[in-house]
Amino acid sequence: MNYKISNRVSNLPSYLFAHLENMKQKRVKDGYPVIDLSVGDPNFPTQSHIVEKMKEVLSEYETHRYPPFRGIDELKITISDWYKRRFGVDIDPEKEVLILVGSKEGLSHISLSYIDPGEIALVPNPGYPAYAGGVALAGGQVEELPLLEKNNFFPDFSNVSPRVAKKAKLMFLNYPNNPTGAVASVEDFEQAVEFAKKNNIIVAHDAAYSEVSFGNYVAPSFLKAKGAKDVGVEFHSFSKTFCMTGWRIGMVVGNAEVIDNIAKTKAFVDSGVFGAIQKAASFALDSYNEVPKEIKERYLERMNILKRGLEPLGWEIQVPKAGYFIWVKVPNNNSSMEFCKMLLEEAGVLMTPGIGFGGYGEGFIRISLNVEEEQLHRAIKSINEKFYIQK
């Protein structure tokens, strides 16, 4: 039978990473190996003390029942304590914390909570596709916030037209940034707060990569900016910090009214995160100081492998201050999608085309560092021998 799908689904763009996975699987099915440098999924295991805690609490009867809609008190208090310890920000665990089934879920639900059909959300371009996807599911209209290299990939709010600014209800920000690797200061965030207050806009800041930083760089919280809690919330993920992508747990903190309304939406969609996962996450955060040194060193080594291997081939490799992606200009005159397709077909290496993150991502590709060092060496060798030398 031929059932008509809803307009909100038919109007969705194809999801970038699903498209890349299809490209990869087609090549694998044809019998060719693929080195996948496209997806931001840490290839380090969740630390053993967190796994052991999970095993311990699995036998506790209360974890087998429905959890509280907003999350267990233990985890919310731990999050509040961590915010004070890490960022110097006071968070009320009862009113200003909501536990999420991964931060991606909350980033969609904030649009469903605030955007009516035809209403405007400001979305960074290039940006994580889930922001625009959530707006589309709500029937909203995306207005782009261009992230330009000349502005260090931070929005220039003075270029947002007054008409759009006055109609916008929601604005997404993300620092350290995916895909560009750019970082933002408290002063940058204060610009965003000023713009949001002036135009009565809610700010949704995605801080998923705040803990994956290098050298002396320490990422600030959006909520550290003066007045930030008046206008916005901040999303965090356990996925990147603790290598827990498959566990599906995150949180949103900040403005109590916004938290309430996201919670109201979630109550009709899911029943919360498995209690044992919440307890293990609380244990992880309570015992956390920073991402283990050896993991950061491995990421840096991977960046340096790519820098040493690809720069002689004409690639401009900039090592970011945070995150585990390298945002690099397409090293020839092809479009980013054409280049990535050729790279996959000829060298068996999959990277992410910048166009997949929006029109302002054209001319760039994103390289993920979540493979073993040996695979990076193989990728460089294949790119050199099968892609460049043959040409």
UniProtKB/TrEMBL annotation:
Highest taxon listed in the record's lineage: Bacteria
A Pfam match: Aminotran_1_2
GO molecular function: pyridoxal phosphate binding; transaminase activity
InterPro entries: Aminotransferase_I/II_large, LL-DAP_aminotransferase, PyrdxlP-dep_Trfase, PyrdxlP-dep_Trfase_major, PyrdxlP-dep_Trfase_small
Aminotransferase class I/classII large domain mapped to chain residues: 33-383
Keyword ATP-binding carried by entry: no
Keywords for this protein: Aminotransferase, Transferase
Cofactor: pyridoxal 5'-phosphate
UniProt protein name: LL-diaminopimelate aminotransferase
